[in-house]
Amino acid sequence: MKALVTGHAGYIGSVLVGVLRAQGHDVVGLDTNLYRDCDFGRHREFVPEFTLDIRDVEPQDLQRFDAVIHLADLPNDAPDVLAPDAVQSVNEIATRRLATACKQAGVRRFLFASTCQAFAGCRGAPVTERTPPAPVTTHARAKRNCEYALQELADETFSPIILRQAGVYGVSPRLRLDLFINDLVASAATTGRLHLPGDGHAFHPLIHVEDLARAYATLLTAPDERPHDRLYNLADPEASRAIDIADAIVETVPFCTRVTTPRLNNEPSIRIDASHFMRNFPNFRFRWTLAQGIRQLCEAFHGAGLTAGDWRSDRYRRILRLQSALEQGAADRNLRQIWTAVA
After folding, report:
1. Looking at the predicted structure, is the pLDDT value of residue 44 above 80?
2. Which domains, from first to last, does the chain contain?
3. In this predicted structure, what is the pLDDT of residue 341?
4. What is the rounded CA–CA span in Å between residue 115 and residue 294?
5. pTM over 0.90, yes/no
6. Which positions ≥6 away from 295 have C-beta within 8 Å?
7. How far apart are alpha carbons 73 and 25 in whole angstroms?
8. Measured between alpha carbons, how far is residue 331 from residues 11, 308, 318, 338 in Å?
9. Sign of CA dihedral 106, 111, 113, 117
């Protein structure tokens, strides 16, 4: 299958590309390459690519593709540094426009990366696909609005598939240390201290980046006879509280001390029921446990000689990288200026 992956040079995309190519798919990427100098460890696989803003994609750009996997977006804290219209234009308006262009170009399958943070305002029992979303952040609200727009576009000729993915962790050629697990492990490994947020009782739905990439590959080749307009929650079945995650990290990282920070009044606690995905794809298996993922991160950080300075730097933190780009004139607050390499 010939697939276009938006955000292919990012944290998830650089892992997904390798998984898809290993399965024999013809992959093309689309990315602005803002994080071009943020590689970690091994270099990313080279793939043909468009260096293009997703706001500028036209139907004629898409006619040769069988499917589009749409990962590209701006991070959760982007409204703090960018123009408000820029965030909405990338995370919401551009997604609607891209999906419409795909439909016009005859691209039948459209996989969309949504988020379990759509349920951040929910409390109580594990949430299912039937649970009404309750997003509390601008990022999650944009994802919810995109879900509604895709459901409206769905018909017998256009099959959007929405994946509400849990918090992602694990090693990637485009590493992020602003993600919950990766941040905790990097802090423990480089400073010997792990700062546990709140009282540790909040549940954090998780999925290893390689398992997530394999899930996208599974959805890419799902039989056409399945109903269009599909929505799936996806999280590791191992429900994890923050305190259990912290204990697992302390057990793995030598000479690490856990420090409890003041309780967060708005700390989300989300429990995900992903049984719908597992019923529809019974051959899918999670290959990573939390303990294995923590060990993988520790070994990678040790092998790369990661320092506390690296952990705090903008190299592996997306919002800090955006701030650097703005400060150095490599981008404007609408992200419309042509980008140059950010040192």
Report:
1. no
2. 2-175+205-238+270-287+318-327 (3.40.50.720)
3. 39
4. 22
5. yes
6. 252
7. 23
8. 21, 27, 14, 7
9. positive
